[in-house]
Amino acid sequence: MADSISKTLHGLLAADASIVALVGDRISPYLRNSPDAADFPAIVYELQTTDIETTSLGDIGRCTTGVRVSALSRDYETADVIAAAVLATLPGYADSTDCIAKISPVSVEHTSEVPYDGSQDLIYITTTNIRVFHAEAI
After folding, report:
1. Could you tell me which of 82, 73, 133 has the C-alpha nearest to residue 108?
2. pLDDT tens digit at each of 138 positions of the chain
3. In Å, what is the CA distance from 33 to each residue of 37, 49, 94?
4. DSSP strands (E only) in the chain
5. Which string of b and e fits 100-118 if b means at least 16 CB within 10 Å?
6. Rounded Cα–Cα distance for residues 59 and 126 (Å)
7. Nearest CA among 106, 100, 34, 103 for reference residue 72
8. Global pTM value
């Protein structure tokens, strides 16, 4: 299930021309840690907790997974532009034949990190938190 959601999200992001124009093929799950400063800008996505709704009889109903899609850049503005492209691409996606029934935005966060590659430039991160509604129960 998680693998299917991850592959679908990667496919949606990598298929969007505006996202590819901004980050190229630098879209990856969970971690982007490279000593090469050319690895920016980039997108990293992480599947968080999957919530499982059950009936009073214990039958499994709807499942949803929280996902963090982070835009990483050496400047604040580019991170925000990438996050806006993510918000234009993912929310509203629905495909009953796929593992994802619907994607809804939840929130946007702005942070920064100290560089890990020897650069003096901060890494700016704009994270879009989304909720993925599963097409089927687990």
Report:
1. 82
2. 556 888 889 999 999 999 999 999 999 987 665 555 558 899 999 999 888 877 777 777 678 899 999 999 999 999 999 999 999 999 888 776 677 888 999 999 999 988 877 778 899 999 999 999 887 765
3. 10, 23, 32
4. 27-29, 42-54, 60-73, 100-113, 123-134
5. bbbbeeeebeeeeeeeeee
6. 38
7. 34
8. 0.85
What radius of gyration do the chain's Cα atoms show? 16
**Cβ neighbours of 63 (radius 10 Å):** 19
How far from 62 is each of 59, 76, 83, 125, CA to CA, in Å? 10, 37, 28, 31
Q: Which residue bears the tokens 């946007």?
A: 108
What would the two tokens of residue 133 be?
Answer: 């509604």
Distance from CA of residue 70 to its chain's centroid? 6
Residue whose tokens read 């003096």: 120
